[in-house]
Amino acid sequence: MARMREVARRVFAVEYNRSQHEDKGLEENAPNYIITPLGATVNRVYFVGVMMTKSNTGSDDSPQYRVEVRDPTGTFYLYAGQYQPQAINMIAGLDPPTLVGVVGKVRTFVKEDGTFYASVKPEAVFPVDIPQRDRWIVETSRFTMERLRAVKDAMEEEQPSIDSLMEKGHPKRTAESGVNAVGLYGNFDLSPYKEGVRTALDMVLESDGKSIGPGTADREVPQLNIEKDDKNNADLKEQILKIINDVSGEKGALYRDIIARCEKSGIDKIQLEETIQELLDEGQIYEPTIGIIKPI
Question: Which residues pair with 34 in a beta bridge?
Fold first, then answer.
């Protein structure tokens, strides 16, 4: 039976890079996860930032790329080799500095002294624009702040549990994150993650000459006008979801068929990739196997 592909989680670099725990499945081909300090369980990640450097540590015939992509809170490190041919082709055609979106799988390395490093094996690397970056920042800030509040509440309990956090109004997934975080990392300083959110949101508002100010992570994400037309984004998702339904067979829709139909409708691959990620995160579609998209 084909294993369903994990949803790509939106996580800032400051949280991802401070991860010190992983969960390796015991079954054959079981997915591996990292558990971040805020308790997010991540197998695949989606982030946006500036590609600052790329270097080919292999050869022209067999390239091996090492890439640094910087988001507002830190740097993601990407490693792409022969088993990521699509990502290699994309990276080869991009010149730093350039704003990119990245979808990839977690990659971990533990030194003999126990030092833990988290990097990314890219599946897709694609150019994005400022509105796409800003939308990613706001959505990632919202998810990060939800986890922050759950972790803060969990730290205040003698024996935090999913049920007790849900009673305080946290959704089940967020409550699980809070319990994971305290169980694995104990009580720790939350200020780097709060500061990361503030810095990221300030970048969104920079062009308007505004500032979020301190204490951002203790409040709701402000309503930011980061898109030319919010309705256009909702309409695009509805249009792509309809295309997926139209081209779906019993086993789902081939991704190449979705691309072809979207191209005929004037939807480019960048718009499609980002919208697919949003639909996956929202649980409206899933991937029963790589290359197949199926509506819920």
Answer: 22, 42
